[in-house]
Every structure is written in structure tokens, then in C-alpha cells.
Amino acid sequence: MLLGYRYGLCNRGKLNCLIVKVQLISEKTESADAVIIGAGIAGISAAYYLAVKNGMRNVVMIDERAPLTLTSDKSMECYRNWWPGPNDHMVCFMNRSIDLMEELARETDNLIHLNRRGYLFVTGDKDRIDKIRDTAAEISCLGAGPLRIHEDGSKTSDYAPSPAWGFENQDSGADLLLDKQIIAKHYPYISHEVAAALHVRRGGWFSAQQMGMYMLEQVLDHGVRILKSKVTGIALKSGRVDSVHHQSTDQTYNVGTDVLVIAAGPFVNKITSMINVKLPVLNELHTKMAFQDYLSVVARDAPFMIWDDPVQLSWLPDERAELESDESTRWLLEEFPGGMHFRPDGGVDSPILLMQLSYGLDVVEPVWPPQFDPFVTDILLRGMIPMIPGLSSYIGRMRRPFVDGGYYCKTSDNRPLIGPLPVQGAFVIGAFAGYGQMASQAAGELLAAHVVGHKLPTYAEAFFVDRYEDSNYQETVDQMQDKFGQL
Ligand SMILES: Cc1cc2nc3c(=O)[nH]c(=O)nc-3n(C[C@H](O)[C@H](O)[C@H](O)COP(=O)(O)OP(=O)(O)OC[C@H]3O[C@@H](n4cnc5c(N)ncnc54)[C@H](O)[C@@H]3O)c2cc1C
User: Which pLDDT band, with edges at 50, 70 and 90, does 361 fall under?
Assistant: First the structure.
């Protein structure tokens, strides 16, 4: 007999802890209508839309770890519908995903703490304003909502920040603030050097962990089984999926199935290589920090804030000299890319700010646990100072900053892979990069539509694995280089 694991949730309704019951599962090859490899947000969402929303019976998930513990609990938990082209596919996809998240929030009395504070992209460079305005107008036209421009010196601006809590009846689109006085009035902690701010309205954050746990509870209630085991092989028969081998406590077991969903996060290519498929993905390590703002420099009702300009970290003269003298630290004096971001985390009494910056993004082979850059706390704190000068009070006075992170598994156009693989019966859902939580609802729905044969939405074509075979598309991607909205 195989000692399998079956997950159950304790304290139903609060969804705060997961208990593991050991159960006996037949040693013989069992069979399933669908097997999902991976119980991160991608796998759980696939299971939710297959079993709960489409009534599929006998779904088995296999994960070598506890659900949601590899990448899916490392997220900043933010969402937005503000995505660049080409075409409107990403905007439509995210609008759909946010619609579904809002439905889920309504049906659970907002168990997932969805807010709609928006994203505030800030620049201190007035020469970038025209470009920001043009890009914003383009994204607005893709379906992200109207662009409202609040000109410099405007006396009649009706701009107001978003409410801190709740998500109903809010503006969509974006407000481009060109008047420093409006910015200073509503966001007094932002640098007086600010030149413009773009407030994207259909965005904010939520408890992605609660959302994952809620879906997990639902899938378990609908008969989905989770096996804690490592997938080691996939057998094909006449060119199509036949069974999945997995290994637990030194023994190998099989699950026979016609439908295989691969949701293995950063290890997706390890799994697809078992069926001789190589997907066009790479992995980058991204780090975040939970930082204690115990001096209340930032207001607790702040939106998600992004400094859009490259930054030079501020070092004291003696620190600068020390870094300069050592080849291994000289890079800390160089310019860092734009995109430093943070948001308040927790309730009104929490001092926590979550901070993130994507820098030094080499393509890496994922290893677990990852090693984080020992300078990351200083880089993140000092990198935020051009946007929030008050944070300089914390240099040398940070209290127990906590660092974690995970891999962005991504494609060259920063769009997911969702759909069938070239082996009959095999599907993929992944390459979720830095947006997997916000995308998970529409992604799970789309994956299920592929599996059960429902009509596909128009954006489905943008996520097929073979899209790069179209040379025109590949050329467009090459021209856009890295302008795909990664944060
Ligand atoms: C620092 C950071 C910040 C982020 N911020 C945001 C954000 O603000 N908003 C947002 O929407 N997204 C964000 N993301 C992205 C989001 O967290 C990811 O896109 C998402 O969690 C990926 O989910 P996944 O299910 O594809 O992968 P994972 O969560 O990694 O799950 C994959 C699962 O597959 C299992 N697996 C792999 N191989 C095997 C095997 N051989 N056998 C059995 N099981 C296997 C693993 O154990 C794992 O549990 C962020 C990510 C990071 C790292």
C-alpha cells in the first residue's frame, strides 16, 4: 500500500492552516480523468475550473511540496489591468481575471481582502512625460479604461485617491497627474522632485494566499485528490499521454490518465522534457523584502507605488569609498533599473511595507531554496529613497527586514503559456512570471476550456506555445525588447 497524503483544511472559513492526514491509497496503478502536476496557484486554479466550475470528476493533483509553497506564497499579491500590447490580448485577459476575482470576492464576503487602491507610477524626469502620456493613451485604447489628464496648474482637477479598502464602484482607466501640487497634496511623502504620476485605477492587491486556500478547499470538496509525491516520468502510448509516474518514499507509483495538465512553475521544462517537449521559458530570481516602517514615513492608505526612473543608490562618502575600493562591491555604485516598488502590507496598525526591485536578472537554473543577494536589504531601502526621501531615516536603523522571493518563470514576450502541448492529451498552464496570482482566474478558466472543449476567448491565441513560430509575431517581440510590463 502507498502511504499517500490527503490535505484537509482546519478552521473552515478562516482558511488559515492546512492539516495533512495520512491516508492509504491503493498500490495498484490508479486512474484519473485528469492529472495535474503542481499545486501552486496555476495547478489549483486549473483544478478549480475543471472540477468546481466544469464538474470534472476524478481529478488528481500531484505535488512534492505542500500546496502553494514554492513560488505562490512569495508574491507581492498585487494586480492590475494595465498591460502593454502588442494587441489587446493581455488587457482583455487581465480584465477577465479581475472580473472573476471580484466575483470570488463577492461570493466570499471579500475573504480575499481585495482592494482597489491602484498603482501609482511616479517619475522625477520631466523629459519622460510625453512618452508616459503616449504609452498610457495606447494602453487605455487597448481596453484598460479612460485616461484622464490633470494638467499642471489645473485649478479644477477633481482627482481623488482611491479608497483604501473595498473594490466596488471605483474608477477604471488611469489619471495622469502633471501638477506637482496635486501629487504633494495627496501623497506628501513622495519626493518634491516628482515630475508626474500615473495612477492606474483597476489594480491594487489582495490576499493571494487566501484565494489559493479558498479554491483548494473547494476542489477538495469536489473530490479532487492531492498526492504528495514527486513526478518522475510520463508514459505515452501511441503518441498520447497514458500515465504519470511519481515517487514517494522510494517507491514509484502510476496514475493512468488521458489528460495531463502541467503546472510545475519554474520546473515546467523538467516535466515537459519527460515527453520530449522543450518550452520557450527561462527563470529569473526575484527578491522582495518585508520592511518595518516604524516611523510611519508612508501613509497606511498608500497605493502600490512604483518609481519609474533608474536609480543611483545613495551612499555616504565613506561607504562610497569602501564600495569603490573592492571590485566585488563596485557594482553597487552603478545605476539600477527603474521599477523599484512597494506597498503597505496588513491593516492600519501594521508597520510593514513590502518592497521589490528587479535587478541583476540573470537567467538561472532554479534551485531550492534560492540564495539571496546579501546586499538586497540595503539596495531596496536606498533604492526607494529617490521616491520617498523620508525613508533615508532608516539607513543603519532597519528593524529585522525579512527577505524572501522566488523565480519568475517567463517567456520572451512576458505572456503565459496556456493550452495544448504537441503531445496529445498534454496541456500546460504556466510561465506566469510576476503576474501569476492576478492571472490565475482567467488562466484556470482558459485551461479548462481547452481541456473540456469549450469555445475559447479571443485572447486564447496569444498564449499558445507555438506562437513564436509566426515570424511576424517574433519580429514584433524582438522590436519590443523588454517593454512587456514586467515589474
Ligand atoms: C518576489 C515575487 C513577487 C511576485 N509578485 C506578484 C504579484 O504582485 N502579483 C502576481 O500576480 N504575481 C506575483 N508573482 C508571481 C506569482 O507568484 C507566480 O507567477 C505564481 O506563484 C506561479 O505559480 P505556479 O503555480 O506557476 O508555480 P509554483 O507556485 O512554483 O508551483 C509549481 C508547483 O509545481 C510543483 N512541482 C514542480 N515539479 C514537480 C515534480 N517533479 N513533482 C511534483 N511537483 C512538482 C512544485 O513543488 C510547486 O508546488 C510574484 C513572484 C515573485 C517571486
Answer: confident
Is the beta carbon of 434 within 6 A of some atom in ligand 1? Answer: yes
Ligand 1: centre distance to CA 118 (Å):
23
At residue 425, does pLDDT exceed 70? yes
Q: How far out from the chain centre does Cα 215 lie? A: 17
Distances (CA, A) of 301 to 32, 189, 298: 47, 12, 9
Q: Among 18-22, 428-432, 467-471, name the most confident range.
A: 428-432
Q: Among 162-171, 244-253, 392-401, 428-437, which stretch is predicted with the lowest mean pLDDT?
A: 244-253
Task: Tell me what the pLDDT averaged over the chain comes to.
Answer: 93
- Please, what are the domains in the chain? 2-75+209-280+412-480 (3.50.50.60), 115-202+283-410 (3.30.9.10)
Give me ligand 1 centre to Cα 72, in Å.
4
The Å distance, Cα 288 to ligand 1 centre, comes to 15
Ligand 1 within 6 A of 41 CB? yes
pTM of the predicted protein model: 0.94
- Closest ligand 1 atom to the C-alpha of 404? 1
The percentage of the chain sitting over the pLDDT mark of 70, rounded to a whole number, equals 94
Q: Is 161 exposed, middle or buried (0-12, 13-18, 19+ CB in 10 A)?
A: middle
485 lines ligand 1 (CB under 6 A): no
Going from the Cα of 253 to the center of ligand 1, the distance in angstroms, rounded, reads: 25
277: exposed, middle or buried (C-beta count within 10 Å: 0-12, 13-18, 19+)?
A: middle
Q: Which strand (E) or helix (H) includes residue 32?
A: none
Q: What is the structure's pLDDT at 7? A: 52
Cross-strand partners of 335: 312
* Cβ of 72 below 6 Å from ligand 1: yes
Is the Cβ atom of 267 under 6 angstroms away from ligand 1?
yes
